[in-house]
Amino acid sequence: EWETPLPCPIISYFSVLAVVLKTSEESPSTDEFNRVELSCLIESISTINPRIEWKKITNNKPSYVYFDRRISGDLENRAVIREPATLVITNATRSDTAKYRCEVTAADDNKSFDEIVIDLVVRVKPVVPKCSVPKSVPFGKLAELSCVEEEGFPKSQYQWFKNSEEIPEDPKSSPKFLNSSYTLNTGTGTLRFTSVIKEDAGEYYCRAKNDAGHAQCAPQKMEVYDIDIVGIVLGVLVVVIVLLCITVGICCAYKQGYFSGQKQTGNNYKVPAKGDGVDYVRTEDEGDFRHKSSFVI
């Protein structure tokens, strides 16, 4: 009795003649300076010595990092190949964040080529952010606090704290900030008070955080003071009164003739000073001078 043969061996035979790749992690991530594996597993192949290549893709431009059985490019001296085709980066840096393509060429297989793309992210911990907090703000005026950190990857998100307590994005969500009027942008790190009140005074600091960690700046004190409207008005009045008194005094002095010029007459004519040993004698006629006889001699 004839039995119908099963098709499984035929299917299995054709699968062996095709190179097939897979990966255990399509989007691996790690912190900077740590070890990370880019998994490239050969699921099926019949070629004994296939050609294995790794390429790094930056801005849609591929460049070799493993070619002709050697590590090259950005990963030279920082990576190894773990058989058969997994790429292991022993000391990842922020510049390693990119897409990587594993390519396997098997000349003896019917399907002689396969590839997989792995998206690697290297996380970088934020550094201490630069914080700007105004030292003093008039009551009822606008105040803006800023926080900037540019080293972390992925991009940092920001938190603001007042007197060691986190400031919520919505002031109405917390009884302690219910009377405050502000907007908080966690993406840019800007805390903006539209109209400060006495309760807004305190010590403020900012924290930058991402998946790799966080860092924060030192606390800075902000004071809120009242504007003395009465004092300002009184000061202006005093200045105006002083200016009026000076003006009246100058006018009175002009009227009294203190600033008018005095004319010389014959009665107040002064005798010239003696000089060069010459003696002068005044006669009865006003202004007539003669030399003494001694001078003539």
UniProtKB/TrEMBL annotation:
A GO biological process held by the record: cell migration
Domain of life: Eukaryota
Protein source organism: Xiphophorus couchianus (Monterrey platyfish)
Recorded family membership: Belongs to the immunoglobulin superfamily.
Subcellular location(s) of the protein: Cell junction, Tight junction; Cell membrane
Ig-like domain boundaries: 9-114, 126-223
Statement: the UniProt record of this protein carries the keyword Transmembrane: yes
GO cellular component assignments: bicellular tight junction; cell-cell contact zone; plasma membrane; protein complex involved in cell adhesion
Name of protein: Ig-like domain-containing protein
SMART domains for this protein: IG, IGc2
Keywords assigned by UniProt, alphabetized: Cell junction, Cell membrane, Disulfide bond, Immunoglobulin domain, Membrane, Signal, Tight junction, Transmembrane, Transmembrane helix
